[in-house]
Each structure stands twice: as structure tokens, then as C-alpha cells.
Amino acid sequence: MFQDNLGGNSKTVMVATISPAADNYEETLSTLRYADRAKHIVNHAVVNEDPNARIIRELREEVELLQKELKEAQVRQPPRC
């Protein structure tokens, strides 16, 4: 239940406000229990990226790598007569 509400693609901060008054014992205990459960929520935020933009970026990186490998292979090859 908590994970859907507090999780997601962002950082979440939990602030538990409690009272030292004896009259608020039950409410303070409830708040502390809630805060204890909430601190176990694990968030895995990811960068929002357009799938097409990601593919284009990956292809450009691959082209750059292949061009570098081609240049290195040409340098290692002896000249043809």
C-alpha cells in the first residue's frame, strides 16, 4: 500500500511529527509505527527518456565506437602495394 503512494519516480521525504505529551501517546505511537514502515520503502528512480531518443543515442554511441575501432584497425594494417 505505501509503496504505490510514496514510491514512484522521485525522491520522497518522510517527516514524522510527534508529541511528548502523555495525552498524545497513542497518536505518537501510531505515527512512529507508520514512519518505521515508510522507511523500508525502496525507490528506484529512473530518468524519463523518450524511447526513440534512447535508441538514437545508443545508435550514435555504437557508430562512434565502430568508427574508433575502424581507425585503430587501419593504423595496425600495413600499407598495400
TrEMBL record:
**What range(s) does the Kinesin motor domain occupy?**
1-41
Query: Does the UniProt entry include the keyword Ribosomal protein?
Result: no
| GO-annotated molecular function | ATP binding; microtubule binding; microtubule motor activity
Q: Which domain of life is it from?
A: Eukaryota
Q: Does the keyword Nucleotide-binding apply?
A: yes
Keywords, A to Z, come to: ATP-binding, Nucleotide-binding
Task: Name the protein family.
Answer: Belongs to the TRAFAC class myosin-kinesin ATPase superfamily. Kinesin family.
Entry protein name? Kinesin motor domain-containing protein
Q: Which organism is it from?
A: Dreissena polymorpha
